[in-house]
Amino acid sequence: MTAAAWLSMIAATGCRDSPWTPMGGAEVVLSEIKLGGASDVSKRIDSDENFGRTVMSGIATGDSLWLQVADKLTPTSAAAEATMSIALASALPHSPDKVLALVGDKYPIEEVCGIPFLKGDSALVITYHDEATAAVARVRTVSLSPTRDACRAALDDARDRRLERISPSYLVKNKPVAPPRRVRRKVVKPPQPVTPPDTSSSD
Predict the structure, then answer these.
(1) What residues contact 136, with CB distance under 8 A and at least 6 apart?
(2) Quick one: residue 18, left, alpha or beta (phi over 0 = left, psi -120 to 50 = alpha)?
(3) CB 81 within 8 A of CB 10
(4) What is the dihedral of CA 69, 146, 116, 48, to 10 degrees?
(5) What is the 3-state secondary structure (H, E, C) of the chain?
(6) For the chain, what are the domain ranges?
């Protein structure tokens, strides 16, 4: 699949549910992985556009079986990696625990939690950020605490960077105003009296 085709699929699926996700699709893909190996299925995502769209749309729903599929697959191209980041980012508000358990070396936090959608206006960015951060805040698994905190920081940073590009005035309006600096007044010492020299003669 060409990069252009992948980008079209990313734009089409975005962060919403898609009719391309059939009932029972995750079980079928997991069976294919078990029989043919994860490597062959990962390659098929690049070679079969319909299959790739189905898999990515399924993962984006946050369904636990589809997230098992994401755990077993390894994207074989930069386009597949980008699409997987978008799919996992879409799943994050629905299944924060399961998505955070997947991020790491294969699916970097800064990509999945970096609001990786290609298009968006300020309202979309703010809405997604609010939903994702609220979901991430509900994660209470102790082992996921460092990942949760890193994801929250990445979400905040991505929101600011995205909004600055979309509307540079956003950060100017919403940037906290630093308190005015207090000017320390210099203490002026009073002039010391000068004793005039004694000009009187002793004669």
Answers:
(1) 92, 96, 100, 148, 151, 152, 155
(2) beta
(3) no
(4) -10
(5) CCHHHHHHHHHHHCCCCCCCCCCCHHHHHHHHHHHHCHHHHHHHHHHCHHHHHHHHHHHHCCCHHHHHHHHHCCCCCHHHHHHHHHHHHHHCCCCHHHHHHHCCCCCCHHHHCCCCCCCCCHHHHHHHHHHHHHHHHCCCCHHHHHHHHHHHHHHHHHHHHHHHHHCCHHHHHHCCCCCCCCCCCCCCCCCCCCCCCCCCCCC
(6) 3-174
The residue with tokens 């990445």 is 154
Residue located via tokens 């949760």 = 148
Amino acid making up residue 79? A
The Cα–Cα gap between 36 and 125 comes to 39
| pLDDT digit string (tens) for the chain, length 203 residues | 444 444 444 444 444 444 444 445 899 999 999 999 999 999 999 999 999 999 999 999 999 999 999 999 999 999 999 999 999 999 999 999 999 999 998 999 999 999 998 777 888 999 999 999 999 999 999 999 999 999 999 999 999 999 988 876 665 555 554 555 665 666 566 666 666 666 665 55
Residue 89: CB atoms within 10 Å: 24
Fill in the amino acid letter for 117: F
